[in-house]
Specification:
453 residues; alpha+beta; Beta-lactamase; five-stranded antiparallel β-sheet; 15 helices; globular
Length: 453
C-alpha cells in the first residue's frame, strides 16, 4: 500500500509538472511566437538574411522600404535622410526599423502561423521633414530630431554621415578601407552616441540654482570676461557686466555659470544631472540610448567648466530631447517612439501599440521658470523672426571638443504651444557657433513642420 501511495504521488507530481510546463510553453508561444517566427533563419520570411515580407512607410504612407522587392523610397534624398530610421541593406544599422520591427513586418498569428503577405509598418517620421533636415545640414555631420512631447511620436530623426542604401556595398568597402568620410556612418548619432553638451548644459545648472535661490533676481554676478578659480581660469567670449540669473542664461555667460557651479557644489550638480535623466538610457521600441556622464570634480576650475557644459560632460541627443519635452510638460512627457502603426494586408490592426511616459525630478515651478528664461533667449538673442509666430523656447551651445578643431554647434528647445507641441535637438558636429549654425537648421525644420500642420 505504501509503495502504491508513493507511486501515486509521483505520478501526480509528474502530471502537475507536465501541466505547468505545457502552460508555460503555451504562454510563451502566444507572447513570444511573433519573435520566434521572425528569427532570421526562417526562410519563409528571409532571403539571404534580408526580410522578404512586409513594408515600411512614413507616417503619411510614403513607401520607405518594400520587403519582397528589397526596394527603398523612389527619391534619393528621402532614402538617404531616412537611412538610420529604416536601415541599410546588410543590417549594419542596429536602430533601423528593418531590424527593430521585423517581427511586425511578418504576417503572423498564433493560429495560422506566418503568411505570404507581410504587414505594413508605419513609422512616426515624416519623410519630407527628414529630407528637409538633411538638406539643412548641408553635408555636415550631426543629428536633427523633432518629436511630439504629448504623443511621443518622433517626426524627424536624421543622422549624418549617411548614404543612399542602394550604395551599401560600396560604402561597406569604403568603411573597411578606412575611408574617413564614413567614420561612424553605421551609428545613429541621435540614439547611440554621446557628445559634449556645451552651454545647453546650463539648463541643468540653472535648474539647480533656481531651487537654491528664491528667484532668478537673487543671483547677481558681474562678468569681466574671465574668472579666476583655483586650478585655472574661466573665460567668456565677451564682457557681460552686471547680471542676474536670467541675464546670465540669456548671455550664456561662462563666468557666471562657473561661479554658480562652485557655489552649488559637484554633488548637487550631479544630482540635478541625474534628475534630468541625462545620465540614464532612454528605452525606445526595445533599444536603449547611450548614457551621458558628469564628473563632480573637487577641483574648482574643473567643476566650473562642468557647470558650463564642458570638462568631461557628455549628453546623448535622445536623452536631451526627452529632457526638453519634460521641461515643456512641466515635469513629464511621452517617451519617444518610432512605431506608429502595424496594418495587415486586409487593412486590420496587426499589433496593439502603446507609448510610455517619461519624467524628470524637477519641480513644475522650476520647469515654468526655465520655460520663461528659454523664451527670453529667443526673443532677446537668437531672433524670433526666424521662427515666425512660433513661441520657441531654446538654448544654444558651442561645445569645445579639442584643439585645432571647430566646436560642436547645438540648438535645443521646444515650441510652447498646445497646437505645436514639438521638442527639438540639432547638433552640427564641428559646426562652429551654436545659435547661428545649429539655430538656422532648427528654424528651417520647424518652419517646414509647422507649415505642414
Amino acid at each position: 500500500m505504501k509503495r502504491l501511495r508513493g507511486r501515486t504521488w509521483f505520478v501526480l507530481l509528474f502530471t502537475l509538472l507536465l501541466l505547468a510546463g505545457t502552460l508555460v510553453l503555451v504562454w510563451q508561444y502566444f507572447t513570444q511566437g511573433r519573435e520566434w517566427a521572425s528569427f532570421s533563419a526562417n526562410s519563409h520570411l528571409f532571403t539571404k538574411g534580408r526580410i522578404a515580407t512586409g513594408a515600411i512607410t512614413d507616417r503619411n504612407g510614403v513607401l520607405l522600404y518594400d520587403g519582397p522587392s528589397g526596394d527603398y523610397a523612389e527619391d534619393k534624398t528621402t532614402r538617404t535622410a531616412t537611412l538610420h530610421a529604416v536601415g541599410d541593406q546588410y543590417g549594419n544599422i542596429a536602430t533601423g526599423a528593418k531590424l527593430l520591427f521585423k517581427q511586425y513586418m511578418a504576417a503572423y498569428n498564433p493560429v495560422t502561423g506566418t503568411g505570404s503577405e507581410g504587414n505594413t509598418v508605419a513609422l512616426t517620421i515624416d519623410a519630407e521633414l527628414n529630407a528637409a533636415a538633411l538638406r539643412a545640414l548641408d553635408g555636415r555631420n550631426g543629428t536633427v530630431a523633432v518629436y511630439n512631447y504629448n504623443t511621443g511620436e518622433i517626426l524627424c530623426m536624421v543622422s549624418a554621415p549617411t548614404f543612399d542604401p542602394y550604395d551599401s556595398q560600396q560604402v561597406l568597402e569604403a568603411v573597411n578601407a578606412g575611408d574617413t568620410r564614413y567614420n561612424g556612418v553605421y551609428l545613429n548619432h541621435f540614439f547611440s552616441a554621446a557628445f559634449t553638451p556645451g552651454s545647453t548644459f546650463k539648463l541643468v545648472t540653472t535648474a539647480a540654482a533656481l531651487d537654491k535661490l528664491n528667484s532668478a533676481a537673487d543671483f547677481s554676478f558681474t562678468c569681466t570676461g574671465s574668472l579666476e578659480l583655483e586650478g585655472g581660469t574661466i573665460t567668456c567670449p565677451s564682457v557681460h557686466g552686471a547680471q542676474d540669473l536670467s541675464d546670465a542664461l540669456a548671455n550664456s555667460c561662462n563666468c557666471a555659470f562657473a561661479q554658480l557651479a562652485v557655489e552649488l557644489g559637484g554633488e548637487t550638480l550631479l544630482r540635478y544631472t541625474k534628475d534630468a535623466g541625462l545620465l540614464d538610457s532612454v528605452e525606445m521600441n526595445g533599444i536603449f540610448s547611450a548614457k551621458g556622464s558628469f564628473t563632480p570634480s573637487s577641483n574648482p576650475s574643473e567643476l566650473g567648466w562642468s557647470g558650463v557644459g564642458q570638462y568631461t560632460n557628455l549628453v546623448n541627443p535622445c536623452s536631451e530631447l526627452v529632457f526638453l519635452g519634460c521641461i515643456a510638460g512641466e515635469g513629464s512627457a511621452k517617451t519617444p517612439t518610432l512605431l506608429k502603426s502595424v496594418t495587415t494586408s486586409l487593412g486590420l490592426p496587426g499589433a496593439f501599440l502603446s507609448t510610455g511616459d517619461s519624467s524628470i525630478a524637477y519641480k513644475p515651478s522650476t520647469c515654468r521658470m526655465l520655460k520663461q528664461m528659454m523664451r527670453r533667449n529667443v526673443t532677446d538673442h537668437y531672433g524670433q523672426e526666424q521662427f515666425g509666430t512660433l513661441p520657441v523656447c531654446a538654448k544654444s551651445g558651442t561645445a569645445e571638443v579639442g584643439p585645432d578643431v571647430s566646436p560642436h554647434a547645438w540648438f535645443v528647445g521646444f515650441v510652447d504651444d498646445p497646437a505645436h507641441p514639438y521638442a527639438f535637438v540639432v547638433l552640427v558636429e564641428n559646426g562652429g557657433w551654436g545659435s547661428s549654425v545649429a539655430g538656422s537648421v532648427a528654424a528651417e525644420v520647424l518652419t517646414q513642420l509647422c507649415r505642414e500642420d
